[in-house]
Structures are given as structure tokens and as C-alpha cells.
């Protein structure tokens, strides 16, 4: 097992990465002070892992209950968040209750937001079971739900007290979901570590085959990159916004298509192709570099052609992006491979060329 730390002073927490971690009660030692433990999961993950995790947590001598939500991005909303509060109140949860998010990014984001707001804030642990959640969403404390008009529009920064990433849970993940997670892995290389991007390119087959050693490196290096950024800029005053590479376009695709039609990682993959092309048009990177990044994304079985909403519709959808300031949309661009920065692009024509091509 490898352990690293997200350094946030007295709110620092460990990220444990390894195999069969959900069977190890010691890793859940933060529950020692808890009066009760609630696992929050969904209808797909519950039959796979909830019983094993319950057995582990019961060894800590606390009452353990499970809340099972419907599965899917389209359920990341108020109505389903309310189901968590309903159960917490019905079964007598209190301020010392610990929530444990068992699932992908949807469960992690919703459980985190429930923890941020229940009784004005209780503690939670992330047990990410998708690649995307292990490399990205379980780390950094962005929690929340979607609004029909925009992704993750309602939420809070609320850090978990531990992240426990069990690589064996990835063995049951559908191939399409694995590819979606690889989009965020590629993002980490593109924005912060050119060497890591080389490694990703060389190890495409091992990553697509979900080989444990490749997964371990992908999760570990991604968590190192993300935790360094989060430690430096927890609330996105500056450098954290670079973790949004591909997301201004990607979130527009998700909302525009209807949540769940394109997976988050798929939209981000395609959004990174658009972001790379924007970087070229701003004279930061070369056409060869755009082609290379596009090829890496495509070779992970991710879509590279944006849906044809038209530039106006993209602009409308992107206006609500959280990086927008005074009505000016701000994009993450690649200054070079391995380094990103934020740019405003006042010229609608540039966006027109980016959104004109495409499949759907
Ligand atoms: N908070 C953040 O920093 C952050 C970062 C990136 C993404 N996100 C959010 O995360 C969400 C996407 O997360 P995701 O890609 O994990 O999607 P997801 O949570 O919908 O999970 C994907 C699918 O895999 C299933 N699943 C989960 N674990 C499984 C397993 N081990 N075996 C088989 N099936 C399994 C789920 O039930 C679901 O059907 C989006 O809502 C996105 O906005 C948040
Ligand atoms: O942690 C971050 O910061 C990120 O931007 C990571 C992204 O991969 C993630 O999708 C995040 O939820 C997007 O944040 P948002 O603020 O644009 O909703
Ligand atoms: Zn993302």
C-alpha cells in the first residue's frame, strides 16, 4: 500500500492506495470517535462492495447503516441529496456521525455535500470505486450537485478525513467507465507533468487492460499532482483552476446533451481536444502537439468530436462556468505540454471554429 497526504494544516488527510483496502478496519481509524457510520452508495455498487465494507466497519464496534441511491449522473440533484438527509434524520444521526462515500464521483460529490451541510458539517471518508474517483474526484473537497442549467452549480468545499482507494474494485468497472477515468489521468499529465504524459502514452494497453501495476502508478501520480495543487490553492483562487482543463467545454457538453448522455470523462476528453486546439490558436502549442494529445485521448477510446450545438449555444452553456468573471468566459489553455494557464478569449470567431466541427 502507498500512502500520501493532502497537506491542509489541521485538516490534512491521508490517501491510501492499494489492493483489498476495503477489508482493513485500521484504515478507517478516523471512525473511532464516531457515534455511528453511514455508508452512502448506489444500486450498482451496493451489491458489489457494501457488505464487505459493512463487515469491516462493524469491527470498529459502531452501528453501521447503508443508504442506497439510484445510479447515474442524472440523479446528482436536490431530490436525491434529500434522500441522504431523510435517512440520517430518520435513524438518529448526529454531529459525530461519519459518512462513508462508497462509489464513483457522483456518490462522492453528493455524500461530501451532504456531509458539508448536515447539521452544518460532519466528517466523511471517501472510498472511491471508479478510476475517475480514485484519480480525481475523491481528492480535494469539491462537493456538490448539478443544476439543469449548469454542472456542479450548488456545492461546498468540504474535505474528507481520509481517502481509501482500493485498486481491486476497478476490476468490476465497465470498460467505458475506465476510459472516462483515463481522461482525468491524461489531464494531469497535460497540465502538470510532461513525463507522466509520456508514461501514459507508452502504457496505453496496460491502462486499458486495467493492469494493477499500471493502475497503481496512474492513481498515485494523479493523486500526487492533484494533492499538491489542492494544498497550494484549496479554494481555487489561482492554480487550482488549471485542474479544469477541458472542463469549460466538457461541462457545456454534459449539460447540453442532458446529464448522463456523455460521461463526465468523455466530455472532458473531448473538451481537452478543444482546449488543445484553442491553445494552438493562441500560439502556445504546435499542431503536432495538438495531434499528439488528440491521439492519446482517442487511443483511450474517448470521443474527440464535439456535439454540434453551434457556437452561440456553447457560449450560453459556458457562461455559467464557475471561472467566468464579469461575463467573460475564462479557459484553461496549455502554455506547453505539462504546464497550463488561464486565458480569456474575447473573439467569438475562435470559439466558432472550435465548435463548428463535430459528430453528433
Ligand atoms: N469533486 C471533484 O473534484 C470531481 C472531479 C472529477 C469529477 N467529478 C464528478 O464525478 C462524477 C463522475 O464520476 P464517475 O466517473 O466516477 O461516475 P459515476 O459516479 O457515475 O460512476 C460511474 C459508473 O460506474 C459504476 N461503478 C462505480 N464503481 C464501480 C465498480 N467498482 N464496479 C462497477 N461499477 C462501478 C457507478 O455505479 C456508475 O454507474 C461527475 O459528476 C463529475 O462531475 C468531481
Ligand atoms: O478539483 C478540481 O478543482 C477540478 O477542477 C477537478 C475536475 O476534474 C472536476 O470535474 C471538478 O468537479 C470540476 O469542478 P468545477 O468547479 O468546474 O465544477
Ligand atoms: Zn473532471
TrEMBL record:
This is 3-dehydroquinate synthase. It comes from Polynucleobacter arcticus. CDD domains: DHQS (cd08195). It is found in: Cytoplasm. HAMAP family: DHQ_synthase. Catalyzes the conversion of 3-deoxy-D-arabino-heptulosonate 7-phosphate (DAHP) to dehydroquinate (DHQ). Its EC number is 4.2.3.4. Zn(2+) binds at residues 184, 247, 264.
Amino acid at each position: 500500500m502507498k500512502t500520501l497526504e493532502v497537506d491542509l494544516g489541521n485538516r490534512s488527510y491521508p490517501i491510501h492506495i492499494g489492493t483489498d483496502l476495503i477489508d482493513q478496519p485500521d484504515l478507517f481509524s478516523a471512525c473511532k470517535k464516531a457515534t455511528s457510520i453511514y455508508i452512502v452508495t448506489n444500486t450498482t455498487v451496493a451489491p458489489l462492495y457494501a457488505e464487505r465494507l459493512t463487515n469491516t466497519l462493524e469491527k470498529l464496534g459502531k452501528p453501521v447503516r447503508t443508504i442506497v441511491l439510484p445510479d447515474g449522473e442524472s440523479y446528482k440533484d436536490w431530490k436525491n441529496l434529500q434522500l441522504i438527509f431523510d435517512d440520517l434524520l430518520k435513524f438518529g444521526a448526529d454531529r459525530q456521525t461519519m459518512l462513508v462515500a462508497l462509489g464513483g464521483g457522483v456518490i462522492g460529490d453528493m455524500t461530501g455535500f451532504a456531509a458539508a451541510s448536515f447539521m452544518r458539517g460532519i466528517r466523511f471518508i471517501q472510498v472511491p470505486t471508479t478510476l475517475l474517483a480514485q484519480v480525481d474526484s475523491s481528492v480535494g473537497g469539491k462537493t456538490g450537485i448539478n443544476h439543469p442549467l449548469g454542472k456542479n452549480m450548488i456545492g461546498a468545499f468540504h474535505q474528507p478525513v481520509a481517502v481509501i482507494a482500493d485498486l481491486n474494485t476497478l476490476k468490476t468497472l465497465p470498460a467505458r467507465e475506465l476510459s472516462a477515468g483515463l481522461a482525468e489521468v491524461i489531464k494531469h499529465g497535460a497540465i502538470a507533468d510532461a513525463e507522466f504524459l509520456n508514461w501514459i502514452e507508452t502504457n496505453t494497453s496496460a491502462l486499458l487492460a486495467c493492469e494493477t501495476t499500471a493502475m497503481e502508478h496512474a492513481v498515485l501520480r494523479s493523486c500526487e499532482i492533484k494533492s499538491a495543487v489542492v494544498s497550494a490553492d484549496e479554494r481555487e483562487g489561482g492554480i487550482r483552476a488549471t485542474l479544469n482543463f477541458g472542463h469549460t467545454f466538457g461541462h457545456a457538453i454534459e449539460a447540453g446533451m442532458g446529464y448522463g448522455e456523455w460521461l463526465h470523462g468523455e466530455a472532458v476528453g473531448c473538451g481537452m481536444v478543444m482546449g488543445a486546439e484553442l491553445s494552438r490558436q493562441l500560439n502556445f502549442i504546435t499542431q503536432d502537439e495538438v495531434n499528439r494529445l488528440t491521439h492519446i485521448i482517442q487511443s483511450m477510446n474517448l470521443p474527440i468530436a464535439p456535439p454540434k450545438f453551434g457556437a452561440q449555444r456553447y457560449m450560453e452553456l459556458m457562461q455559467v462556468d464557475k471561472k467566468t468573471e464579469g461575463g467573460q468566459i475564462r479557459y484553461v489553455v496549455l502554455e506547453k505540454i505539462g504546464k497550463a494557464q488561464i486565458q480569456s478569449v474575447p473573439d467569438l470567431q475562435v470559439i466558432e471554429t472550435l465548435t463548428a466541427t463535430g459528430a453528433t
